[in-house]
Amino acid sequence: MREEQAQMTFEVCIEECRNYTWQGKLTAEEKVLEFKSETELLLAMDTLIYGEGEVPS
Predict the structure, then answer these.
(1) 8 A C-beta contact, residue 26 and residue 45
(2) CA gap 14, 17 in Å, rounded
(3) DSSP string, 1-57
């Protein structure tokens, strides 16, 4: 049987684009996180969905 998938809505605000990468703010569930690259953005999303230290299956 398949587990339920975590669902969350994100608001991504790209404020600048320097050195071919995005910088901005990620908002979800009243939390605001700043990011300095696409990698940081994806890691922040993953952390908000699954929590710190959890590995998605």
Answers:
(1) yes
(2) 8
(3) -PPPPP----EEEEEEEETTEEEEEEEETTEEEEESSHHHHHHHHHHHHH-TT----
- pLDDT tens digit at each of 57 positions of the chain: 345 666 789 999 999 998 889 999 999 988 899 999 999 999 999 888 887 765 555
- Cβ atoms of 22 and 37 within 8 Å: the answer is yes
**Which pair of structure tokens corresponds to residue 34?**
């700043």
Global confidence as pTM? 0.73
User: Quick one: CA torsion of 46, 49, 52, 56, rounded to 10 degrees?
Assistant: -70
Check residue 3 and give its pLDDT.
Answer: 58
